[in-house]
Amino acid sequence: MYSPSISGVAANSESGSRIFVYEVEGMRQSQATDQTSNPIRRSGSVLISVPYDRMNQEMRRIARMGGKIISIRPSNSAPETNGKVAPEAGLQSQKSGEKTKPMTQAKEKVQVPVNLYKPANPYIGKCISTEELVREGGEGTVRHVKFDISGGKLHYLEGQSIGIIPDGTDKNGKPHKIRLYSIASTRHGDDVDDKTVSLCVRRLEYKSPETGEKVFGVCSTFLTGLQPGDDVKITGPVGKEMLLPDDEEATIIMMATGTGIAPFRAYLWRMFKENNPDYKFRGLAWLFFGVAYTPNILYKEELEQLQREFPDNFRLTYAISREQKNAEGGKMYIQNRIQENADELWGLVQKPNTHTYICGLKGMEGGIDEGMSAASSKFGVDWAGYQKQLKKEHRWHVETY
Ligand code: FAD
């Protein structure tokens, strides 16, 4: 089990020695002082200083004592005045009504590129390569498609999307509308030469509810059918919701279903595969990845290679719905994995430098919320309110489609 105190990274990093201040209600002072240093009483609540590597342990102790944590913040941001500690940075309870400023944000980096190419005047990229990602025995078609963008001003950041205008016209003879696709490569591209952008595209295929005939999606069929040398109309980039924080010691929790892996591939390649002078990731990245069958695990070999190479910094948890069983004997969906790991995840999301990202099928959020809600309620915390605050602090990011 991951524990901040034993993670190779955290224990050896500055964060290992950081102190956080918990504001706790419902504990008598004698209970609070029992095992901790420096508690300070203020009206109705107690402030407890906790070293980073004891955060989870302390949370459990507080819960056992019937206490309720109403805020957590780094101690260095809390100037002490007349024996009281001013509450500010970090997550605060809704009840306190105090304005908050997070310790880290997936902040809008300077110059997030947006809409460099609009639908009326798209960039014409060229398909360089296309590769099937679903292996034998898997379901459907998903392709990794790489485009040359070296001829214009198109550039992007991890977590952004581009728009594609498929060739041809719709049933009214009008040009097709754009469809958005999450970028699956880092800002430097798969060849690390700043000249390409890659997508991970599933060919949409369904039975028409009216006729029962097989229908293929327009743009996904266009993209998965491209051959090297083909031209493609590209717009964007767009999106600021899924940007990575600058903090190299952050905890990044990723929850993906199917092609929802695309932005996370970009994050992981940036964290572990590229040797960027301006970003040396030393935190924890934890990917939950839900697919139907093992051959549908996209980028499987590379992900597992990363796990082998960076066991202290990268955790990989699959939910393979048609092959694995959950605790009740049903299909193993991503939400079941979230529920299995909910206590640990709950501990992690409370750290001020943890960011959670959800990407993939619409509807996957419900089960995730159920798991988090079950875990937080053990500590007397209402998940809906807590999540709202996480979103306000730009630490809970969702892109589903
Ligand atoms: P269309 O021809 O547009 O058909 C879609 C329509 O078909 C639906 O609107 C619906 O009316 C109908 N339909 C679909 N399924 C059914 C069904 N089961 N029963 C009945 N009718 C149905 N896709 C990816 O593959 N990879 C990505 O990385 C990716 N990233 C995205 C990022 C964002 C921000 C968004 C918004 C979407 C993303 N998508 C991604 C989805 C993508 O934009 C397209 O929606 C998808 O490829 C389908 O487009 P299409 O043109 O092939 O289908």
From TrEMBL:
<dbReference type="Pfam" id="PF00175">
    <property type="entry name" value="NAD_binding_1"/>
</dbReference>
<dbReference type="InterPro" id="IPR035442">
    <property type="entry name" value="FNR_plant_Cyanobacteria"/>
</dbReference>
<keyword id="KW-0605">Phycobilisome</keyword>
<keyword id="KW-0560">Oxidoreductase</keyword>
<dbReference type="InterPro" id="IPR001433">
    <property type="entry name" value="OxRdtase_FAD/NAD-bd"/>
</dbReference>
<dbReference type="InterPro" id="IPR017938">
    <property type="entry name" value="Riboflavin_synthase-like_b-brl"/>
</dbReference>
<feature type="binding site">
    <location>
        <begin position="321"/>
        <end position="322"/>
    </location>
    <ligand>
        <name>NADP(+)</name>
    </ligand>
</feature>
<keyword id="KW-0042">Antenna complex</keyword>
<dbReference type="InterPro" id="IPR017927">
    <property type="entry name" value="FAD-bd_FR_type"/>
</dbReference>
<keyword id="KW-0521">NADP</keyword>
<dbReference type="InterPro" id="IPR001709">
    <property type="entry name" value="Flavoprot_Pyr_Nucl_cyt_Rdtase"/>
</dbReference>
<feature type="binding site">
    <location>
        <position position="399"/>
    </location>
    <ligand>
        <name>NADP(+)</name>
    </ligand>
</feature>
<feature type="binding site">
    <location>
        <position position="182"/>
    </location>
    <ligand>
        <name>NADP(+)</name>
    </ligand>
</feature>
<protein>
    <recommendedName>
        <fullName>Ferredoxin--NADP reductase</fullName>
        <ecNumber>1.18.1.2</ecNumber>
    </recommendedName>
</protein>
<dbReference type="GO" id="GO:0004324">
    <property type="term" value="F:ferredoxin-NADP+ reductase activity"/>
</dbReference>
<feature type="region of interest" description="Disordered">
    <location>
        <begin position="71"/>
        <end position="107"/>
    </location>
</feature>
<dbReference type="InterPro" id="IPR008213">
    <property type="entry name" value="CpcD-like_dom"/>
</dbReference>
<dbReference type="Pfam" id="PF01383">
    <property type="entry name" value="CpcD"/>
</dbReference>
<keyword id="KW-0274">FAD</keyword>
<keyword id="KW-0472">Membrane</keyword>
<dbReference type="InterPro" id="IPR015701">
    <property type="entry name" value="FNR"/>
</dbReference>
<feature type="domain" description="CpcD-like">
    <location>
        <begin position="17"/>
        <end position="75"/>
    </location>
</feature>
<feature type="domain" description="FAD-binding FR-type">
    <location>
        <begin position="120"/>
        <end position="244"/>
    </location>
</feature>
<feature type="binding site">
    <location>
        <position position="259"/>
    </location>
    <ligand>
        <name>NADP(+)</name>
    </ligand>
</feature>
<keyword id="KW-0793">Thylakoid</keyword>
<dbReference type="GO" id="GO:0031676">
    <property type="term" value="C:plasma membrane-derived thylakoid membrane"/>
</dbReference>
<feature type="binding site">
    <location>
        <begin position="360"/>
        <end position="361"/>
    </location>
    <ligand>
        <name>NADP(+)</name>
    </ligand>
</feature>
<feature type="binding site">
    <location>
        <position position="331"/>
    </location>
    <ligand>
        <name>NADP(+)</name>
    </ligand>
</feature>
<keyword id="KW-0285">Flavoprotein</keyword>
<comment type="similarity">
    <text>Belongs to the ferredoxin--NADP reductase type 1 family.</text>
</comment>
<dbReference type="GO" id="GO:0030089">
    <property type="term" value="C:phycobilisome"/>
</dbReference>
<dbReference type="InterPro" id="IPR039261">
    <property type="entry name" value="FNR_nucleotide-bd"/>
</dbReference>
<feature type="binding site">
    <location>
        <position position="202"/>
    </location>
    <ligand>
        <name>NADP(+)</name>
    </ligand>
</feature>
<feature type="compositionally biased region" description="Basic and acidic residues">
    <location>
        <begin position="96"/>
        <end position="107"/>
    </location>
</feature>
